[in-house]
Amino acid sequence: MARRLLFGSVACTAVVVTACIMPVEWTLEPDPVNSPPIINSRVIFLDPALPEVDGVILWDTARNPDLTFTLGAIDDRDVDDTLYVRWLAAYDADVASLDRAVEDTIPPNGEVRRTASFTLTRLRLDEIDNARNSTADGGTVVGRPYAVEVLVGDRRPAFGSAPTDYPDDVQVARWRWVLQRTTTGGN
């Protein structure tokens, strides 16, 4: 009888010990991570293609009155995100007519890669020059270069916010071109 009791105890202990040292399967799911948009610099186009000297794009507005900037590849792994794009041309927060942005949204399309375009016109450059001249202290600033910048975020900027302001938790992709108006002839 004692032998059966001893055998029963050993068998029971083996089952309990085995149950304790057998690992439990754990599945850990990481918290979702926001993937910021990325501008692929190899897929950026100007239409028409213009000459560039020392990083400055030379634009003869008499020959080409419009210039279209295209981001051919904005990559965002969060394919369900809406992307918010702001285009700034000669942005200056201190001059009312230059304190503005052209805003665009790119809806989700189920793809990682999306595109965005913006056309800058000779008329807009004339408006920029007029705004710059009205703020110049006795001198002309028409010959200054123009910075064109694009900002792409995956969160909506606050209503009424400055064009360069995005919420703190947003990572913004940026790209900038520098233009110089030239005159090589044309109409």
Protein described:
- The chain has a 6-stranded mixed β-sheet, with no helix packed on it.
- By secondary structure, it is of the alpha+beta class.
- The protein is built from 2 helices and 10 strands.
- It is elongated, with a radius of gyration of 30 Å.
- The chain is 18% helix and 33% strand.
- The N and C termini lie far apart (115 Å).
- It has a single domain, classed as Immunoglobulin-like (Sandwich), CATH 2.60.40.
What does this entry show, briefly?
18% of the residues lie in helices and 33% in strands. It is an alpha+beta fold and 187 residues long.
SSE blueprint and pairings:
Layout: H1 2-21, E1 38-39, E2 44-47, E3 52-53, E4 56-60, E5 66-75, E6 83-89, E7 102-106, E8 113-121, H2 122-135, E9 146-153, E10 173-182
Parallel strand pairs: 4-10
Antiparallel strand pairs: 1-5, 2-5, 3-4, 5-8, 6-7, 6-9, 9-10
Structural class: alpha+beta
**Biggest sheet character:** 6 strands, mixed
CATH level-3 fold name: Immunoglobulin-like
Strand order in the largest sheet: 3-4-10-9-6-7
Instruction: Enumerate the spans where pLDDT stays under 50 for 5 or more consecutive residues.
Output: none
| Global outline | elongated
* Share of β-strand residues: 25-35%
Number of domains: 1
Keywords:
single chain, 187 residues, alpha+beta, Immunoglobulin-like, four-stranded antiparallel sheet, 10 strands, 18% helix
